[in-house]
Amino acid sequence: MMSIRSLAGACLSAFAALGAFAVPASAQTYPTRTVTMIVPFAAGGPTDVISRIVTAHMAQTLGQSIVIENVVGAGGTTATTRAARAANDGYTLITGHMGTHAASVPLYPKLAYHPEKDFEPVALLAGTPILILARKDFPPKDLKEFVAYVKANAEKVNAAHAGIGSVSHASCELLNSILDVKPVGVPFNGTGPAMNALVAGQVDYMCDQIVNAVPQIKAGTIKAYAVATPERNPSLPEVPTTTEAGLPAFQAQAWNAVFAPKGTSPAIIAMLNAAAIKALDDDNVRKRLLELGSVIPAPASRTPEALATLVKNEIAKWTPVLKPAS
Amino acid sequence: MSDTPSEAPVKSILPKWVRGPQDFVGGLAMMAVALFALWASSDLQGMHGFSFGAGTAPRMFAVLLLLLGGAVALVGILKDGPHIAAYSWRGPLFVSAAIVFFAVAIRPLGLVVSAFAAFLIAALGSHETRWLEAIIVGACLTLGCALLFPYVLGLPMPMFPRFLIQ
Amino acid sequence: MELFANLAHGFVVAFSPINLLMCLIGALVGTLVGVLPGIGTIATVAMLLPITFGLPPVGALIMLAGIYYGAQYGGSTTSILVNIPGEATSVVTALDGHQMAKQGRAGPALAIAAIGSFFAGCVATVLIAVLGAPLTKLALAFGPAEYFSLMVLGLIFAVVLAKGSVLKAIAMIVFGLLLSMVGSDIETGASRMAFNIPELADGLGFATVAMGVFGFAEIIRNLDHGAEMDRNLVQQKITGLMPTRKDLVDSTPAILRGTVLGSILGILPGGGAVIASFAAYTLEKKLAKDPKRFGRGAIEGVAAPESANNAAAQTSFIPLLTLGIPPNAVMALMVGAMTIHGIVPGPQVMQKQPDLVWGMIASMWIGNLMLIIINLPLVGIWVRLLRVPYRLMFPSIVVFCAIGIYSVNNAPVDVVLAGVFGLVGYWLIKHDFEPAPLLLGLVLGPLMEENLRRALLISRGDWSVFLSRPLSAVLLAIAAGLLVLAVLPTLRAKRDEVFVESEG
Hints:
The complex is a heterotrimer of chains A (326), B (166) and C (504).
Chain A: H1 4-21, H2 25-29, E1 35-39, H3 46-62, E2 66-70, H4 77-85, E3 92-97, H5 99-107, E4 119-135, H6 143-152, E5 158-161, H7 167-179, E6 184-187, H8 191-199, E7 205-209, H9 210-219, E8 222-227, H10 242-245, E9 253-261, H11 266-281, H12 283-291, H13 304-322
Parallel strand pairs in A: 1-2, 1-3, 5-6
Antiparallel strand pairs in A: 3-9, 4-7, 4-8, 4-9
Chain B: H1 21-40, H2 56-78, H3 90-123, H4 131-152, H5 162-165
Helix pairs in contact in B: 1-2, 3-4
Chain C: H1 2-14, H2 17-35, H3 41-52, H4 57-82, H5 91-102, H6 106-141, H7 144-160, H8 166-180, E1 183-184, E2 191-192, H9 206-222, H10 227-237, H11 245-266, H12 272-287, H13 300-315, H14 318-323, H15 329-340, H16 349-352, H17 354-385, H18 390-409, H19 412-430, H20 435-458, H21 465-468, H22 470-503
Helix pairs in contact in C: 1-17, 2-4, 2-17, 3-4, 3-15, 4-5, 4-6, 4-13, 4-15, 4-17, 5-6, 5-13, 6-11, 6-13, 6-17, 7-8, 7-12, 7-20, 7-22, 8-20, 9-18, 9-19, 9-20, 11-12, 11-13, 12-13, 18-19
């Protein structure tokens, strides 16, 4: 059974393939060898898992294997710098991310690349919603109480994050700037140790991606106040959205998207975009992404142009929040 | 260590009152490292309020190393100790050259060329090397590495020179 | 009893042909990874992760776990044979292990490392099954203050294990701590002493420095004039392959103590396993009737740390299996492997995924059995490798190390840095500085600083937390006691010296 979506996807990719005929030889034959997808974070993290699920399907469409290369370091900017400098022949791509392609701009004044100037946007893959989490015996019962409590006890509360430049750090800064509080931020090396400290009750609250938190919330070792997306998430139906819980200003998602180095031919970009869209319409891919608590982008936001707009808006959103921190 | 110089001991350029040159020079070198680290971390923020700045810990350790280096040097002055052991130049030179060559060559020339060449350069470091034997063993080793690392362990590495592939 | 039912279920899962095969592959790859210098478990598991997508999740995890603890078996091999520790946990093994090899006793050293690892692995596996859940509390009781105190204790171990001057050993630790400061600051993200070299942005890698100060430096030193005689001697001296009865008798208590220490410290994520190996060595040295033997080829100095690091490698699975929180980078990759299969581990993973948890626990025991069956016959091959003339051996080691370091981050700069550290190491040897404390400082430095800063952030700058929290206070007290024990003999020796001089 073919859904309308996948039919549309197939048409689109056929169209893209047709379009590819019209342009120079490089795109006609692309891809003739293995494509490298740089993932700027360790294997097994949310960005890596999303990249792997989607690229596995894209590889089938393109008829070439896509190798994931995890390049870790400096909040993902090491990898992104490398991708920016890579040959723009379509054989090196990167799964960019809210951190590498937006929050990095204010965080790293000496950044060796610019997300808008050095990359061609290809396609938005998926977003992971951010949750406001707290240790299980943290006094506030709901988000309203939480806001009041944190404001009243700003001197006393500790907020954990997974390191400068991480999603949990950036989103916590956003939350703090909305609440206009400056709690002590306790840095950890990655989400694992930060979660461990939250479960152990050594820190008071943190913001983190949904993937890491669901099992802990379900087991009652930590609690969740709200999810920072417009809609509730199917994996945590009982957790209200920030809008429902009275803090509509706090909206945050760790989005992941494919980028190519600047100057990659438009035909190749179109092929890759079509392959990505086809993957996002595949039932199995969708199922696995949804299991992770991911939000799959609506068709309108899957074009390269939409991604370019997203990057622009995200840079504008994070710059005032993260500038004073660095 | 067992390598007390079997040849003529290095002539000491150090003044007579240094009774343990090995410790004395060792301590001074540690102090130099510490001073360098102090300079290198001087642009980093120090304590702010109750929390550490980026530069607090590096400077703390650098000062500690400065003191310890000073103490080691002092021991070298006060206590009789061994002379500075003889250095040889051949081993360090060619082993370093092999390593640097490998580092420079691996990306453009690939694993096969750089591993084989690095093997032969390193072999220059010993006067015992027999060339025919070294070339045969080097070739076998290169072949083994070329199979082991990219295929068995699946590590992504260029195999052959870039200009040959394209 | 529920436990036996669970274990029986686990063995049924683990004994399925596919899982047995996965376990064997994991053990083989792990041994290989451990043996090859530089090739780390993180890199390998990351590379093999995509292959596991096509496998059933239980099999995939059994294989990945096998690589993880298998590497602990292999890691001792290069430490003993060529004085190159492949993992941070086998640094201490090199101290006495390589000395044994120089005395022609590489065979017994390798064999006792495998036997100790096997025993420790078996005990620790049982421990996971029986006490996994209660032991989780220990992992949660350790906050930043406790970790800081543990790191202090760990550094004191490095002082005790020094065979030469205590002062110089402390200087080396501080040198290591200073080197560990290179990279990004955890709290502000500021780049520290990295000189705008992007490869230094995340600090100096353990493999880079270890290959340098141990591997390359040892090679360069062996090429010195006068060192040839030593080497030829080694080749003539090779005696038995297996430990003698006396070796076994000497090692047994060391293995037991190493297992206990390793099992406890392994539960603590971040540095637990490394500290375990150093702690086990220090304990043996302190308990020995003749501590002077240590660093000169004492078999306990191999047996204890090798048992400890393998026990720690097993018990480090406890936080993952009971809390669903990955305690280190390799386990984070395993969580990734589970996530890809749609299993996100959490506190309920034991109830929700009994196949996975108990299958894995049972497979660890089987894996350890396989590893000893693989490793004992290998001893003969490794020892035969020592008979290869050094003129052919050293260029091969250089090439292997260079490839290994390159493969960690695919960064040529790392290879050059290792070369630089080779020269530094050569210089250190010439000035009688020991590299082992330097490496420990390098590994523990960031953990120590981060936890100190976290503890002070949480306590709002109140330093008394380190003493007011009981666990932390106990750890600091042990550290202080050990330091006194380490320094006292030197002071006493000095006094004796003065005494002798005034007499004469």
